[in-house]
Amino acid sequence: MRKPLIAGNWKMFKTTAEAKDFAAEFKKIYVSSDIQVAVCAPFTQLEALKEAFQDTDIQVGAQNLHFAEEGAFTGEISAAMLKEIGVDCCIIGHSERRQLFGETDEMVNKKLHQAFASGIRPILCVGESLEQRDGGQAFDLVRSQMKAGMQGLHADQAAALIVAYEPVWAIGTGRTAEPEQADEMCGFIRQVVEDLYGEEAADKVLILYGGSVKPSNASELLNMGDIDGALVGGASLVPEDFIQIVNF
Ligand SMILES: O=C(CO)COP(=O)(O)O
């Protein structure tokens, strides 16, 4: 049985003081349940959040890591550095990183391997642009991102993977995918995992939807059969909004 996951992606928002305020507020309204909850914050807020959430089951995630174990990579952060402070999971290959920072499928693949090697659960982001959706290429594109991103992973790693389907046209635009549309792609992603790794891995892999998830649309999206959770941007910054999504 897959345990749903609601993960917040704070992107480049909140100072440490603001992150501590969020944690204090969120803890007052959060009740542990069989829904997993994670907050993926900027690097400099991770340690404070781990400390603030230490008496809860709320997970803390990063938004990126470098694919090398260590080395001369000025400005980068390694998986071991994240692991040392207790980081549980890490977003990998977010569309903003692919578009704005030149991340390729090959880099995404190396980052997945590094995350697994360090005991950090990766959240692999895939999703098409509006041009690709309108051009009828969405499914081919997502299949190729999945195949290239997962290259060389073992079946047990595939089963432990979290995939986030985030159509680029729905991120930060207020334009959410229709629940059926999102579920169709999440089902397709599960099929790709089954084709590559078999039924057991496909049954276990968690597949999230991301893109303008809000309190008002969370339950219809999250009640679809192949959507196992959400990766939430803007609405994860406000405790009262995020809790409503967690409690969908
Ligand atoms: O990119 C996203 C989460 O990773 C989605 O962002 P929004 O929820 O702000 O659209």
How would you describe this protein?
By secondary structure, this protein is of the alpha/beta class. It has one domain: Aldolase class I (TIM Barrel). It contains 12 helices and 8 strands. It has an 8-stranded parallel beta barrel with strand order 1-2-3-4-5-6-7-8, surrounded by 5 helices. Helix 1 (16-29) crosses helix 12 (239-246) and helix 5 (105-117) crosses helix 7 (138-150). The mean pLDDT is 97. 1,3-dihydroxyacetonephosphate binds next to strand 8.
Radius of gyration over all CA atoms, rounded: 17 Å
The neighbouring-strand order within the major sheet is 1-2-3-4-5-6-7-8
User: What would the CATH topology be?
Assistant: TIM Barrel
Fourth CATH level, the homologous superfamily? Aldolase class I
Q: What order do the helices and strands follow?
A: EHEHEHEHHEHHHEHHEHEH
Share in β-strands: 5-15%
User: Which ligands accompany this protein?
Assistant: 1,3-dihydroxyacetonephosphate
Please outline the major beta sheet. Answer: 8 strands, parallel, barrel
Catalogue the unreliable spans: none
- Proportion in helices: 40-55%
| CATH C-level class | Alpha Beta
Number of strands: 8
What is the count of helical runs?
12
Number of domains: 1
The geometry reads as globular
Q: Termini separation (Å)?
A: 18 Å
CATH second-level architecture: Alpha-Beta Barrel
* Secondary structure category: alpha/beta
> Please, what is the average pLDDT?
97
EC number: 5.3.1.1
GO molecular function: triose-phosphate isomerase activity
GO biological process, one term: glycolytic process
Function: Involved in the gluconeogenesis. Catalyzes stereospecifically the conversion of dihydroxyacetone phosphate (DHAP) to D-glyceraldehyde-3-phosphate (G3P).
